[in-house]
Amino acid sequence: MTEFSGLSVLLVEDEGGVALLLETMLEDLGFEVAASVARVGRAFEAIEARAFDLAVLDVNLGGETSFDLARSLVGGRTPVVFSTGYGAAGLPVDLQSCPVLSKPFTQDSLRETIRATGIGAR
């Protein structure tokens, strides 16, 4: 059992290889990848269908950003981690408190970024 066992995660990533890598890493950390989608619209459908303990969001998804989705999740008290190559400087001011997983990443950096949300302390 790991510190994240039993927790569900929403993964929103439009690059197939990156999504598969993140799914594997998240599962290795103990998460249940409850939904993995590539588009913002599908992510909104997923959060209407169920609650998640964490969301990992790519910033740019096929020409859209995940910022409105992140605002909805944060407003509902779901911790958000952004996955991006742009760093925190690319986030709007109101979302800059969300941890950023910088691409490229390792399993250790993923774990530490998730810990920054406080989710492991729940």
The pLDDT mean sits at 94
Query: What is the chains' assembly state?
Result: single chain
Number of helices: 4
Radius of gyration: 13 Å
Number of strands: 7
CATH architecture: 3-Layer(aba) Sandwich
Give the H and E element order.
EHEHEEEHEEH
Q: So what's the CATH class?
A: Alpha Beta
What is the strand content? 15-25%
CATH topology: Rossmann fold
- Please indicate the count of domains: 1
What does the overall shape look like? globular
**How many angstroms separate the termini?**
15 Å
Instruction: Supply the helix-strand structural class.
Output: alpha/beta
Strand order of the largest sheet: 2-1-3-6-7
Keywords: Phosphoprotein
Pfam family, one: Response_reg
InterPro entries: Bact_response_regulator (IPR050595), CheY-like_superfamily (IPR011006), Sig_transdc_resp-reg_receiver (IPR001789)
Domain Response regulatory: 8-118
Structure write-up:
The relative contact order is 0.18. Helix 1 links the parallel strand 1 and strand 2. The model has no long low-confidence stretch (mean pLDDT 94). The protein has a five-stranded parallel sheet, sandwiched between helices. A two-stranded antiparallel sheet has the order 4-5. The chain has four helices and seven strands. The longest helix is centred in the first third of the chain and has 13 residues. It is globular, with a radius of gyration of 13 Å. The protein has 122 residues and is of the alpha/beta class. It has a single domain, classed as Rossmann fold (3-Layer(aba) Sandwich). It is 34% helix and 23% strand.
